[in-house]
Description:
Blueprint: H1 3-10, H2 16-42, E1 45-46, E2 56-57, H3 61-68, H4 71-102, H5 109-117, H6 124-134, H7 141-149, H8 162-189, H9 194-202, H10 207-235, H11 239-244, H12 256-267, H13 270-295
Antiparallel strand pairs: 1-2
Helix pairs in contact: 4-8, 4-10, 6-8, 8-10, 12-13
Amino acid sequence: MSAKRIKQMIINKKTIPYLLLLPAFLFIGAFMLYPIGNTVVMSTQHNVMIDAKGTSFIGLDNFKKLILEDEVFHLALRNSLVWVAGNVALQSVLGMVLALILNQSMRCRGFIRAITFSPWAVSGVIVSLMWSFMYSESVGVFNDIMLRLGIIDSRISWFSTGPRAMLAMIIATTWRGIPFFAINFLSSLQTISEEMYESARVDGAGALKRFFYITMPMMKDTVVLTLLLRTIWTLNIVDIIYSTTAGGPANTTLTVPVYIMNTFMGSLDYGYTSAMAVIMAIIMIVFSLIFIKATKYGKESLY
């Protein structure tokens, strides 16, 4: 068979799309699939960088230790649940309110939208530094405002207790995350025909009925997808927590990703930290499947 014939067989209408997608597939394989597979393999090994014995296969021992013995990991899981639930709940509600406001006709609407969405562009480290300064016990703006208003009698140390530190970080992350919800919700709001609202007004439907029977059903898929993405991203946040409290005080703000980082930096144990990452990935996959099923993503309505 001639080389020309072979070339014609390889490059034809059916194979061209796959050839064009091949670089993307190679990129995904090299930078996503291989690291994931390597992490799964290392989770079944005794793999400590500073251990002269080298690497050895230990099966599920790392997982048994995590699930049955590691109380700090259990605490980090509970803290992660509080962290994710608090952030996503606040960001989604406030993001919806902001989107509804920005969807109204107003002067300088483009400029106002740009200013409103700007916190999303700020890096996590800068957010943690900025809000840590505002929370400062000695020079923080929050203590100063509350003292002037008579809300408190003395300055508060925001990061001295676990619940207060967790609340402070959730507020900071909420400030950064609201624009993500607002952008997505606003784009979905703008696809809803005004004629539907006019018909509802003629039928006597008030603002709440229009919201729950027109706005929310029409935005359902956007709301579900945005909540799911933000839940996954919030669970994986490290920079803000690590730069602010590093999981303290007394591990009360320690989440699983921060615990993975702290454990690896302290022991250089690839195997044990890989097992944590695998468990966290399994939790996210199971949650995603249940959430999509429960919210009927892709179907017409939540109601």
